[in-house]
Design a protein that fits this description.
Elements (H helix, E strand, L loop, with lengths): L1 H15 L16 H19 L6 H17 L7 H14 L2 H17 L4 H13 L3 H14 L3 H34 L6 H9 L6 H19 L4 H18 L12 E3 L1 H8 L3 E5 L3 H8 L4 H7 L3 E5 L13 E5 L15 E7 L3 H11 L5 E5 L10 H4 L10 H12 L4 E5 L9 H8 L2 E5 L4 E4 L1
Length: about 450
C-alpha cells in the first residue's frame, strides 16, 4: 500500500499542478480550476497519510482508492469527474476522522462552486459540517439541498436531521432564557462565574464546545441554587435532552406503529407446527412467482410462513413476506436503505450492539412490520464451538442463519428452500450443512425440503 500511495500522490500532484489538464466538471467541458483545487486538497491529505506511517484502516484504504478514481476521471478527456468528486467526499466522511471530515467539507465547497444547483453537493456539504459539529451552518446547507430535492421520500432523513439540530439549539436558547429570567430577580445580579459560563454558551458553537459550555453552566447553576430549585431542575432536563439530541436523532415513532418486540420464545411460538419456506431473491423465482397461475406462485402461497432475506432486488414489493431477515454488513450499517417492505416479523442480525441499535433506530419504518426481533435474536447461534464448527469459517449468509435458527428451535412442521440455485446458491460449507438435513428435492420447483 505504501508504494501505491506514493504513486497515487505523484499522479495527483502531476495532474493538479498542470494548468492545462483536461479535468472537467461536465462531459465535453474545458479545464476546471475547482476540480484541480479538489485534487490538490486530496494530494495534501495523501501526504499526511503517507507521513503517518503504514495504513491499517480499511476505510482509509477505500478513501485512497476513491481518490485514485477521481484522479483518473480528472485526467481523462471527456470524462465527467463531478460524480467521482462527490463519491470521494462521501468516502472521506465514511472514514470517520476529523481530518477526513475537513477534507469532505473542502471537496463539498469545490463541488458547490462547480455546480451551485447540485443537490448532492449541498447534501455533502451539510453532512460534512454536521460531522464537524457546525450545526447551524449544516442546517443552511441542508435547506439548500431540500430546495433542490424533488423526491419527497428522499428528503425525510434530511428534514429529520434539521429538526434534530434545531431542537438541540432550542434547548440552549431556553436554558439561557431561564438564566436571564433568574438573573433579573436576583438582588445584585447573577454570580460572575455563572454569568461568564452563560456568556460562553451559544447554539452557534461547534457541538463539542457547546456540550462543554452547557456542562459548565449546569454545574455552576446547580452549585449556586441547589438541585431542588425548580429552575435548576428544568435546566437539568434541558441539558439531558440536549445531550441526547447531540448523540442521535429522535425516533419519530418510538413504538414503530405498535410493533411488538419478539425474542426466542416468541419466535418459537410463531413457527411452531407451521410450514415454512425460504424464497431466494432471483430473477427466475421472482418472474414465476408474479406470473398469474404459476405453479411456483401456488406452491409458495400454500406455506404458512414465507421467509425472505436481505434486500429484495427482484421480488415485487407486494409479494407476500411473513418473515423478513437481514444481516448488517459494512462499517456503517445504520446508513443503509430503510426497511419499508411490509413483513409480519422482521429479524435484524448484527454486531456490535451499538451498531445494531443505531440500525434499528434509523432503518426500521413504523407500520412496516408487526413484530421486531429483540437483542436476543441479533446474533443467533454465533458460537462455533457450540455448533460443532471450526472457528474462522467466515460470515454466514442470512439464509443460512435463518435455517440454523429454525433448526435449533425445532418447532416448524416443515422447512423448505425455494430457488437457491445459481447466483443464489449457498456457500459450500452451508450446502454441506443443508445436505446432511435434506429429506428430498424437487427439481421442477427447485425446492429443498429439510427433515
Amino acid at each position: 500500500m505504501g508504494q501505491t500511495l506514493t504513486g497515487l500522490l505523484t499522479s495527483v500532484r502531476a495532474i493538479a499542478g498542470r494548468p492545462g489538464t483536461p479535468a472537467q466538471g461536465r462531459p465535453g467541458g474545458g479545464p476546471d480550476q475547482a476540480l484541480l483545487a479538489a485534487l490538490r486538497l486530496c494530494g495534501d491529505h495523501l501526504s499526511a497519510l503517507a507521513a503517518a506511517g503504514p495504513l491499517t484502516d480499511a476505510r482509509r484504504t477505500r478513501l485512497i482508492a476513491s481518490i485514485g478514481s477521481l484522479t483518473t476521471a480528472c485526467s481523462t478527456p471527456g470524462a465527467d469527474a463531478f460524480d467521482a468528486l462527490l463519491r470521494t467526499g462521501h468516502q472521506a466522511l465514511d472514514s470517520g476522522g476529523e481530518a477526513e471530515a475537513r477534507l469532505a467539507l473542502a471537496l463539498a465547497d469545490e463541488a458547490t462552486a462547480l455546480r451551485a444547483r447540485s443537490k448532492g453537493a449541498w447534501r455533502l456539504r451539510g453532512n460534512a459540517l454536521d460531522a464537524l459539529g457546525r450545526g447551524e451552518e449544516a442546517i443552511t446547507a441542508y435547506e439548500r439541498h431540500l430546495a433542490l430535492q424533488q423526491n419527497t421520500a428522499a428528503s425525510r432523513d434530511v428534514e429529520r436531521r434539521i429538526a434534530t439540530l434545531r431542537a438541540a439549539g432550542d434547548r440552549i436558547d431556553e436554558a439561557l432564557t431561564l438564566f436571564r429570567a433568574g438573573a433579573d430577580t436576583e438582588a445584585s445580579g447573577a454570580d460572575t462565574e455563572v454569568s461568564g459560563a452563560a456568556a460562553r454558551l451559544s447554539r452557534h458553537l461547534p457541538a463539542a464546545e457547546a456540550r462543554t459550555a452547557f456542562t459548565d453552566f449546569v454545574r455552576l447553576r446547580t452549585a449556586e441554587h441547589g438541585a431542588g430549585d425548580p429552575a435548576v431542575r428544568r435546566l437539568a432536563t434541558l441539558y439531558a435532552e440536549h445531550r441526547r439530541l447531540s448523540d442521535r436523532d429522535p425516533v419519530a415513532d418510538p413504538l414503530l406503529g405498535g410493533a411488538e418486540p419478539i425474542g426466542v420464545p416468541g419466535l418459537r411460538r410463531l413457527v411452531a407446527g407451521r410450514t415454512v419456506c425460504l424464497v431466494a431473491d432471483t430473477p427466475r423465482t421472482a418472474e414465476q412467482e408474479q406470473r398469474p397461475g404459476s405453479p411456483l406462485a401456488a406452491l409458495i402461497e400454500g406455506y404458512d410462513l414465507v421467509v425472505r432475506c436481505d434486500e429484495a432486488r427482484h421480488t415485487a414489493p407486494a409479494a407476500r413476506t411473513d418473515l423478513h431477515a437481514c444481516t448488517l454488513r459494512g462499517d456503517t450499517p445504520w446508513k443503509g436503505p430503510r426497511w419499508d417492505r411490509r413483513a409480519g416479523a422482521r429479524l435484524v442480525f448484527g454486531d456490535p450492539l451499538p451498531h445494531w441499535r443505531l440500525a434499528l433506530r434509523g432503518r426500521l419504518v413504523p407500520g412496516a412490520q408487526d413484530r421486531v426481533g429483540d437483542a436476543t435474536l441479533r446474533r443467533p447461534l454465533h458460537d462455533p464451538a457450540l455448533l460443532g464448527e471450526e472457528a474462522g469459517a467466515g460470515p454466514a449468509s442470512t439464509a443460512y442463519t435463518v435455517l440454523r435458527l429454525l433448526d435449533f428451535l425445532g418447532t416448524p412442521a416443515r422447512v423448505d428452500l425455494i430457488g437457491f440455485e445459481g447466483p443464489a446458491a449457498l456457500s459450500p460449507r452451508e450446502r454441506e450443512w443443508v445436505g446432511t438435513r435434506t429429506a428430498n428435492t424437487d427439481d421442477t420447483a427447485v425446492r429443498i425440503t429439510l427433515r
